[in-house]
């Protein structure tokens, strides 16, 4: 049967999906809102359909998207990540319309979309957890939970249906619970349509490690190694690494076994990521880890796993959704290659940063856009010279992925630093300079980092490094610079962060 795939997303991930589908000889249909017609994903698909409405809302309109898919004779829908990727009702409506949803079964989306249910599954599987609530809580219950913690301990308030760091607040003082609780509920309601929250004790210093799982409809499962995502800002990942340079062989095996145990219990299918925190002691991971959540979808950082294994995860996800088995794809556990060297992904965001480390969205006309190229360098982006960006959408402009086959992690960091120096973006403020600052820090080059590293050592990341970095490209002539249209917010920013 001839297949046709509608891509229910935009930007760089829509382009990534279109490329994978093209390799499978599957025609693709892009969708776009009225103010998103010049996004590059529209040109990269075989066909494009205009959605009714502007901004983010049309990309969340499942009924309209399914109608467009039927009108275009699509047999499948790939949701990418974000938007409708974890929406169980959307997956069910796709099935009811006779359209394949490229992702896990709806009941898995429901299970892992409820973070408390996911915690309860981990408990049944004997996977370690931090102290936390077993259901959604109200304000009084959150206050009582905090009061029951040991003196000096902190609490996380988290959206029940959350992800990506939205709807999450750390609380260190009882006096801050009320405002943090209200903020979390508001963010959760706006981002996920569900304002329920739960609470967990916060590990004072931890690393973020996640395991990539692949499952087929026959119940067969494989793991494709781990990634470390400890360099975050306000619970938003900035730099991701595969594999972790810091885990011992024993700890890596125990974390992977925990992920497989949970996935096997629910007969997981499609791509999925099981995420853990590892307690860090003086820059080194301890042997203590806890489960935090599972993401039943393609991850933003899937790219680094692809780089070190050579497995096209997006292509694999599509093939599995269309009925292939892991055996047919030559993906038994014995056939999964060991990670070769190290890969890093750096998120290039359109933003400026103030002196306290808060990021402000930026937008404008990209007057120059020249990504780096070369061995071990990949850029996933929808940017191009002449494109006017919009602050109505996510600030992610590009993902810079570098891979070094060397066993020395510092070699991969060095390749990433040089690639940033070659990345020419003009007209819109980005975080390239800040990422260069981070990579120049000895702690980062040695991976002696933790989830609050940027938050607690932001001044070090800005001031302790030379404020200027080499620019390995020709910048615009002064006359051209004067004509740049920059719509970024006008604020004073530290040197090297814009």
Please describe the topology of this protein.
Layout: E1 4-7, H1 11-23, E2 27-32, H2 41-44, E3 47-50, H3 62-71, E4 76-78, H4 88-96, E5 100-101, H5 106-113, H6 115-124, H7 139-147, E6 154-163, E7 166-171, H8 177-192, E8 197-202, E9 206-215, E10 221-233, E11 236-242, H9 249-265, E12 270-281, E13 284-295, H10 302-309, H11 313-321, E14 342-349, E15 351-353, E16 359-361, E17 368-370, E18 377-381, E19 396-404, H12 409-422, E20 424-426, H13 432-440, H14 442-445, H15 453-456, H16 458-463, H17 478-482
Parallel strand pairs: 1-2, 1-4, 2-3, 4-5
Antiparallel strand pairs: 6-7, 6-8, 9-10, 9-12, 10-11, 11-14, 12-13, 14-19, 15-16, 17-20, 18-19
Helix pairs in contact: 4-5, 12-13
Structure overview:
By secondary structure, the chain is of the alpha+beta class. The protein contains 17 helices and 20 strands. The chain has helices at 11-23, 41-44, 62-71, 88-96, 106-113, 115-124, 139-147, 177-192, 249-265, 302-309, 313-321, 409-422, 432-440, 442-445, 453-456, 458-463, 478-482, and strands spanning 4-7, 27-32, 47-50, 76-78, 100-101, 154-163, 166-171, 197-202, 206-215, 221-233, 236-242, 270-281, 284-295, 342-349, 351-353, 359-361, 368-370, 377-381, 396-404, 424-426. Strands 13-12-9-10-11-14-19-18 form an eight-stranded antiparallel beta sheet. Strand 2 (27-32), helix 2 (41-44) and strand 3 form a beta-alpha-beta unit. The longest helix has 17 residues, at 249-265. It is globular, with a radius of gyration of 22 Å. It starts with a strand and ends in a 16-residue tail after the last helix. Residues 482-491 have low confidence and may be disordered.
């Amino acid at each position: 049967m001839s297949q046709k795939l509608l891509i229910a997303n935009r930007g760089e991930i829509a382009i990534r999906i279109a490329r994978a589908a093209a390799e499978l000889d599957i025609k693709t249909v892009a969708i776009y809102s009225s103010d998103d017609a010049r996004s590059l994903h529209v040109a990269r698909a075989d066909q494009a359909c205009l959605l009714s409405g502007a901004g983010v809302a049309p990309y969340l309109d499942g009924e309209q998207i399914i109608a467009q898919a039927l009108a275009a004779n699509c047999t499948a829908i790939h949701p990418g990540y974000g938007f409708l990727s974890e929406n169980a009702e959307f997956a069910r409506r796709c099935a009811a319309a006779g359209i394949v949803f490229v992702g896990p079964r709806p009941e898995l989306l429901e299970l892992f979309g409820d973070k408390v249910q996911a915690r309860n599954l981990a408990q049944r599987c004997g996977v370690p957890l931090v102290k936390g609530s077993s259901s959604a809580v109200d304000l009084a219950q959150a206050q009582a939970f905090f009061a029951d913690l040991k003196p000096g301990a902190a609490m996380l308030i988290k959206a029940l249906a959350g992800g990506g760091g939205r709807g999450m607040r750390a609380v260190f003082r009882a006096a801050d619970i009320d405002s943090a609780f209200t903020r979390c509920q508001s963010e959760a309601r706006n981002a996920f349509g569900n304002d329920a929250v739960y609470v967990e004790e916060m590990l004072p210093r931890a690393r973020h490690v996640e395991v990539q799982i692949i499952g087929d409809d026959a119940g067969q499962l494989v793991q494709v190694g781990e990634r470390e995502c400890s360099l975050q800002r306000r619970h938003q990942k900035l730099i991701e690494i595969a594999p972790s340079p810091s885990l011992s062989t024993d700890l890596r095996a125990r974390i992977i076994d925990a992920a497989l145990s949970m996935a096997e219990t629910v007969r997981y299918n499609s791509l999925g990521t099981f995420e853990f925190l590892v307690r860090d002691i003086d820059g080194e991971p301890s042997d203590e880890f806890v489960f935090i959540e599972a993401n039943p979808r393609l991850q933003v950082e899937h790219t680094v796993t692809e780089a070190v294994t050579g497995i096209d995860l997006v292509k694999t996800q599509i093939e599995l959704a269309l009925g292939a088995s892991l055996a047919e794809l030559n993906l038994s556990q014995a056939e999964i290659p060991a990670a070769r060297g190290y890969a890093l992904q750096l998120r290039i965001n359109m933003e400026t940063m103030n002196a306290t480390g808060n990021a402000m969205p930026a937008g404008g006309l990209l007057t120059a856009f020249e990504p780096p190229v070369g061995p071990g360098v990949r850029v996933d982006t929808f940017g191009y010279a002449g494109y006017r960006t919009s602050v109505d959408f996510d600030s992610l402009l590009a993902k810079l992925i570098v891979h070094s086959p060397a066993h020395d992690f510092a070699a991969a960091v060095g390749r990433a630093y040089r690639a940033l120096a070659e990345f020419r973006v003009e007209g819109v403020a980005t975080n390239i300079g800040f990422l260069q600052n981070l990579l120049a820090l000895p702690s980062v080059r040695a991976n002696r980092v933790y989830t609050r590293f940027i938050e607690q050592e932001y001044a070090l990341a800005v001031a302790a490094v030379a404020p200027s970095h080499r620019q390995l490209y020709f910048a615009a002539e002064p006359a051209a610079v004067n004509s740049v249209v920059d719509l970024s917010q006008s604020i004073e920013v530290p040197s090297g962060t814009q």
